[in-house]
Amino acid sequence: MGLKKKLLGMAGVALCSTLVLGACGNSSDEGTGEKKEVAINHDSQFPIIKEGEELTLNIMAPGVGMAEWEDMPTLQDYQEKTGIKLTYTTPPSADFSTKLNLAFASGDLPDIVYGAGSQALTASMEIDYGSQGILLPLEEYITPEIMPNLYALTQEDPSILKSITTPDGHIYSLPMISRNATSIWWQGPMWYNGTWLDNLGVSELPKTTEELQELLTRFKDEDPNGNGQADEIPLTDVDMNSTRVWLMAAFGLRTRGIQVDDDVVSYTPTSENYKAFLEYMNTLYDEGLLDKEVYGQSDEQKKAKGENNQLGLFADYFSFFTTGRSEAEAMNDPMFQPLTSEWAPEAKIPGSPRISRGTFALTNVNPSPEGSMRWVDYFYSEEGTKYIEQGPEGVLWEYQENADGEKVRVYVDGIDTDNTEDERGKITPAYGLTTPNIVIDTTGEYHIRKTADEEPDTRFSDWVAQETAEKMEDIAEVPFPLLYLTIEENDKVAATATDLTTYVEQMEAKFITGVEPLDNWDDYVKTIEAMGIDEYVEVYQTAYDRWKAN
């Protein structure tokens, strides 16, 4: 598996996984049954239960097809460490949401729902099943004695608890907490073709919308790819997915939807700022600066243009995913510099809340909630998250001594070092899932080398981290906090949301490509108002006010 698949699986990680882990309570005779108190060890990290005690927990989990969970060495080793036996039910990930809903409906529950993500274990499910007592409140266990690692994180960043606390004051699921260098990204960045910049003698990136338009015009007119043909495409994307984010920011907008500024919630697609953004993009389109195929082309079609050296500014997780160049060559493709305009005199961009909810929940058949919470807490430490990512010593990696006498991690014999993600997927559940742990960069002692004396090549990742720090870190703001709506609030917005999103998406494409003239803006706004946008915004204002007060 390539780097792109790994990163996209984690990134967003960012923001929204559709997978959930879990196991049905009656899937094993050893599992859920009559509850009894199990003595928990608080004197050390391991074992979790005291000597002589027995505890078996059922985990319901989506199968990703790499290995059966009972065969994963990481989980086998963790049973030995903790003293807690595990059983699993792992329906295919494509069926998992259905199976989870069936488990709740039938009462055939797992002890633990693990790695769900908010698309499968939704916010409304948390509130609904929590209010019924089917999902257990977890906040009483987030203490220095029971969960020292997660507790410490919540003390460092109080927004974590605010983001996972439901309107009734309870916490029904634990999050994935991302703290790696790129976790602040709201969307994959845009990248300039560095070769074109060099060929045109461009030494400073555009900082305003006017400067960007001037550079895109040069891309179009001055043959920067040097083939003597007018085949350059100054700006492209797939359905504007990333371009929208970064260019809307130049007009004071951090999202095409609900945004809060100075505690006032608004719906940005009806704002004058958004109209100005559409006018700007329509100008780029009319002048041949925006790809005529930006709406409708596939990622593969975009990639073909990149590999043919036809693109000047484009969106992707990393530039070499589009251009086909090496990492070293990609370091000449600078990250997009956020812009200002008359609508936004200071550059601001959307930032990720860096939290993914719904990764770990306990049901009311769990025989030891405290033991279960102790079980997961290890993964909220630096050592524990690398354990769940890389497995125990001797499986994927082993310690070897290098020429300087230092112990370093080295891939064990037999590991396909060109496909380490596939190898990892066979040994650990932390593969393509939104799991309960922290996400941090793999550096220092946790870097796995091919040989003991190999110097880790971190030049590209270091460069990306530097570009992110310089161009995003200080100006990124979350458009709207991660919060919960009540069941009633969710019902109010659910019916409107789909129609609203569909209409705005369709009209954006029409306005930018000129199919719909911007002279019809007022009619567009009236249509959105008729959909009930005022009531829609009011719901989110109420939810925001409640969130802020807590």
UniProtKB/TrEMBL annotation:
**SUPFAM superfamilies xref list:** Periplasmic binding protein-like II
Keywords per UniProt? Signal
Q: Which residues form the signal peptide?
A: 1-22
UniProt keyword Signal present: yes
Name residues in a coiled coil. none
Any Pfam family hit: SBP_bac_1
Q: Which PANTHER family match?
A: ABC TRANSPORTER SOLUTE BINDING PROTEIN-SUGAR TRANSPORT, ARABINOSE-BINDING PROTEIN-RELATED
Put simply, this protein is called ABC transporter, solute-binding protein
Provide the organism lineage as a comma list: Bacteria, Bacillati, Bacillota, Bacilli, Lactobacillales
